[in-house]
Design a protein that fits this description.
The structure is a homodimer of 325-residue chains.
Chain A lengths: L1 H18 L4 H8 L3 H13 L3 E5 L7 H11 L3 E5 L6 H19 L5 E4 L4 H9 L10 E4 L7 H18 L2 E3 L10 H8 L2 H9 L5 E5 L1 E2 L4 H5 L6 H9 L2 E5 L2 E4 L18 H5 L3 E5 L6 H9 L5 E5 H9 L9
Parallel strand pairs in A: 2-11, 3-4, 3-6, 4-5, 6-10, 10-11
Antiparallel strand pairs in A: 7-8, 8-9
Chain B binds a DNA duplex (30 and 30 nucleotides) through helix 3.
DNA sequence: CCCCAAACGGAATATTTATTCATATTCGAT
DNA sequence: ATCGAATATGAATAAATATTCCGTTTGGGG
């Protein structure tokens, strides 16, 4: 019976604290008990469920799905954006927008941003970044060569340059094709001083922004000319490849798929990516689901920004759960 | 639209803080923002109602009614006890129990307790106090004389003595009748050294425990012999009296009702009561409702302990609301 | 009855959180 | 464009809260 009187008092303390916003010291004075006791009563109130705290996610946000993604794939953070329809265009726009906001809010002074430049989603992100007056970033490094097609080359360079301008960093372009014609050709390209300097910066990158590619070439990729032959793509597929980040392929388990083509790609490797402090991946859309799932399993991604439909698909899958941490 | 991205982040912070019990500094590190920002986001989360905190009063307690009493009558605290039936016996027992618990929990070391000894409810309270080993109270002072009837006299003395023993204070009895035969008789009684010493202690009392009497004499009062004649009582009633504390009468507005009898009462006055740091009133029951309402309006009571039925009646009344503070 | 283990409670203290202060930035009005 | 008010930010700091530590008490076994 005295337990009830005790709980009554705890409830009163909880009310004064949570509802009336009184300080513990004042409550203690009012009730002639010590502040320590008030603190303990409040803890007790939680345990006894006299106070209940609930976090409601604002409509249009999907905290629960984000938590699901974090847990299922062991990533540090996930952002799931609202999207009215499951089409690539709107999805990319929303993902880019959310990523831009996140970047703005969390970019540290002096960061070295690495950006793999041929993702339409990343482009949307850059479109949404507000210029930061006090130069936050130190350098913005292009982590994958441009395309053979000069039009897209310019596009890629522009993306890096704009991002650099917006974040106040100095741009370091990778003035080379993303894929060299041969191993030898790559070596030649690497002999270029500017190219080498940029590549040497890869290890300094503190924040990498990457897109995730599906095996079926994206519109941008195909527009950019034949990067790989369809036979080469088929080979990767046969080896289990489900997608790529910066033209580095991986299978459904997140294991790298080694191919002879690796020697021709001029850009950051998955291994390099894994050493980077923060890796932000931007991707969504029906066709990319499998690729994203594989990418998440590589363990290099710290934050995924995706859309609700894709997130649902990622969680719905009955593939084995990979827990980290 | 960016408001949504902002809210998303706030919701995430709130989740990490309230659900996952992470410290603000850790959240800040995880999200690459400052601890100050996390603190502000959490405040924002409250404002935006992303976090909702509710205090549920344990069943058997009536936090809402207590709040109603505090607000309507401007008292510092109220305790409303559960009671299955609206009869005086059980009500007094529950009130006494709750008051005992409260007293135990909040009695300060060195307090001087004043107790008006003829309330059955107070008796129940004393019955429920556990002995306090390390003498908390300094002195326990009887604030109203005993009754003419020697049996009750002993009762009253015992109550004070027991309370003193239980709280570890030294008992100061008021060895005199509660009501002298005349003004002159009172003066004679006051000349007694022990009586005077006790009365002088009134001003030192830090915590007074009082009962509230209705105009219809209680069983204890009537058993104790004719304290006042029914004619005297009628006079008080005519003057608007609705009840008394320690035989000091007041009307429905809480204004003292002065009568010639005041000069014959040997006990603490309402004025003295009002200077005391904490005044705890114990009372409940159908017949006492009007008396309690008047008592609350005197402004001398800091804490009322009553039962649910009486509390409901006190709140239901459409009498004008007297707000203090 | 006495002693011990566990529980309690408060003062002092450590830790965590909120606020202040100094800057930087945005936005709106010229 | 340029100024100024309003807003936002983080570092430093003040304030509030949680915990540790220690003396007391309580409730069992010897």
């Amino acid at each position: 019976m005295s337990r009830l009187n005790e709980l009554r008092m705890i409830a009163r303390v909880a009310q004064m604290y949570h509802v009336e916003n009184q300080r513990q010291a004042d409550i203690a004075k009012h009730l002639r008990i010590s502040q320590a006791t008030v603190s303990r009563m409040l803890k007790r109130a939680q345990e006894e469920e006299i106070v209940r705290t609930t976090v409601v996610s604002p409509s249009g946000t999907y905290a629960e799905i984000e938590t699901g993604l974090r847990q299922k794939f062991g990533i540090a953070e996930a952002i799931v954006v609202e999207c009215s329809e499951d089409r690539d265009g709107p999805i990319m726009a929303r993902i880019g927008e959310a990523a831009a906001h996140f970047l703005e809010a969390t970019l540290q002074p002096g960061e070295v941003i690495g950006v793999s430049s041929w993702s339409e989603t990343i482009l949307k992100m850059v479109d949404n970044i507000h210029p930061m007056k006090s130069g936050k970033a130190k350098q913005v490094v292009q982590t994958l060569g441009g395309m053979g097609d000069p039009t897209v080359q310019i596009h890629a360079n522009q993306l890096t340059t704009r991002l650099a301008k917006l974040t106040g960093g100095e741009a370091h372009l990778l003035s080379a094709p993303g894929v060299a014609q041969s191993r030898e050709a790559k070596l030649v390209l690497l002999s270029d001083t500017y190219v080498r300097e940029t590549i040497e910066l890869f290890s300094k990158v503190t924040l990498a922004i990457v897109g995730i590619g599906a095996m079926e070439p994206s519109s941008m990729l195909s527009r950019s000319g034949n990067v790989f032959t369809s036979r080469e793509i088929a080979e990767v597929k046969d080896a289990g490849g489900v997608g790529d980040m910066s033209l580095r392929f991986f299978n459904a388990d997140g294991q790298p798929v080694k191919t002879p083509m690796d020697d021709r790609v001029i850009g950051m490797s998955l291994e390099e990516l894994s050493t980077i402090d923060r890796v932000i991946a931007l991707a969504g859309g029906q066709s990319k689901t499998a690729a994203i799932r594989g990418a998440l399993r590589t363990g290099v991604i710290d934050l995924l920004v995706t859309d609700k439909f894709t997130a649902d698909r990622l969680l719905a899958s009955d593939a084995p759960i990979t827990t980290r941490e």
